[in-house]
Amino acid sequence: MLLSTSWERRVPAWLRRIWREVAAFGTVGALAFLVETAAFNLLILGAGDGGGSLSGAPVLASAVATLLAMAVSWFGNRHWTYRDRKGRIDRREVAWFLAVNLAGLFVTAVPLYVAHEFFGPGSPLSDNAARLVGWAAASLLRFTAYRSLVFTSTREDSAPVPSTTDRRTLTLRHDRYWPWCLAAVAAFCGYAVSVVFHPGFLSKDSVEQLLQAEGVRPVTDWHPPVMALLWRTLIDITGALATMAALQAAVLWGALWAIAVAVWKRTGSRPLSLLALSIGLAPHIVTFTGVVWKDTHMAYALLAVCAIAFLARELPAGRDRTRWALLALGILFLAYAILVRKNGFPAAVVVFVLLVLAIWPKPGRRRWLVAVGSLLAITAVGSVLVSSATHPVAARQHAQIPLDDVVHVLTPEQVRTAAEKAGADPEFRDTLVSTARKCRQRDIPADAYFACYPRTPGDRPIGPTIPAEHADVLVKMWVQQMPQHAAGYVEYRTRIFARFLFQGNLPYFNGTWQGTPESVQVNPTLNATLRSYVTGFVRDVPALFQGWFWLTVALILLLRRRWSGLWARDLRLLGASSVLYLATYLPTAPESNYRSMYWPALAGTLAAVLIVSSHVTRRRAPRTTEETKETKETEESAPTTYPDESPATPRPDNWRDRADAWN
User: Fold this and answer.
1) Can you state the angle between helices 568-583 and 294-313, rounded to 10 degrees?
2) Nearest-angstrom CA–CA distance, 542 and 505
3) Model-level pTM greater than 0.70?
């Protein structure tokens, strides 16, 4: 620290100041360059193989891209590079900024124009090379004009800050622009992810719900009607089925932005806030960002509630209306998560507790009653409204669980006897016996309805359904037989749950498969790139895509005796939410897809980021304390000026030198 201070004293003040300006201007310029280059190439090349909307007008594309970069340059330079000169926005400053950037637009476009006019149409590589030359010249022009013509006013609140001010307070005071930078990064990442998944990766469940949303098939309650209603509404508003996948990405990156801002406000660290934002790019998270699944919707809705909770905790004292508004918004997300995933209710309840305790550290009985009543009321009213809007056909999906238990725990002959005892008609009795035999012959451990159960072709126009009389018989068989075969039932469900935890499959869903509608065409190059990224981690770090790993993480978060740091209670609640969600699959798991453990993976990754943030903050705190102590000791040991001491007399460094000088 002393060497740094000595070096700063030797360097002239104007050089230190201009070096800081150059560094900040270069950083803002690099970000603006990325925005401009990405926009230019998107306008020229497009997202697919058909070219961009301005592929035949490269000069116009360059102008549009430069205008987009101007906004980035304005916010970055005004709020960071020249923040010490920032005053109120006046006409002179705006006029000079527009004039300088219009000149920069001209300077940037001239090399491209010359290259096309004198050397003929070139390749995208030559176009970018010409623009790079123009960018360098325009950057020099902008830097000179910004510091001499644009940002010249003096900031009124630029008084020096005392050295004893807390580091976090200093960071928050001088980095007010940082949330906007995080928003720009989140928007760019969300847009890039949407382009990769465009128009959305569709599974069999997704296609079923798309047909329901488009009115080709009636809505059933086998899949969540609220999701079909949402998709139908988006299609009616925008006319594009891709809006659903884009909405998923927007919710994810919006929630991550809010979490990143909360982390930054708590720690004062930009890298830690970027670490929180990078959750969306983790391979085990990005793999399903654009796959239209109820599991993805539930996970992102619960993450949005966590983001609302973290932001609510940063509110100043008072602000009761804002707190109630955030509670209402969080409850809407929670109600959607419950309606979109039936077994997500226990996980949503724990996240609800996290939300209430973040809004009010000591809620009190009245607030608890109001919050709980609001959650129950909004969920119930939402369910009624969705049912009245979609009129779903009762598919009786619950009968799939006793069907699995009956045909796998009992032998075929026992199934026949149990069916007769439960009052099944001969045809359904023979169907159950055939299902049990088929599962045993083919060694199919679960999901008997889709793998072993003979279904007539007439089911397809409606989708998967189980007749009411058959569902009643299956439930009655389960009630009568499972208590008598308790050991076999426990053994079967333990085996299936172990398979669910240790043999998870489908870590990546391919964007192109045989059942995908012809109207849904994904970019094969982007699909292959994303698949290589995800499957590479599946090969190298397979635990990230297995249920046992995230169950272990959740149990550690829940059962660890003491968490210290900024998010101790949140870590425990995230662990409890994940454990309860995975526990719901113990008696119900039909298969072992990674999508079924997507929320525990997302919650565990968020918890890991919070733990790292707390650890870094704790390690920084003692160092800051020692620096403050050292500064205090230096100030206390600094000599005073004595009456008989001339200005040229060197100051004594300690009490002995001071005594010698006095004598």
Assistant:
1) 160
2) 11
3) yes
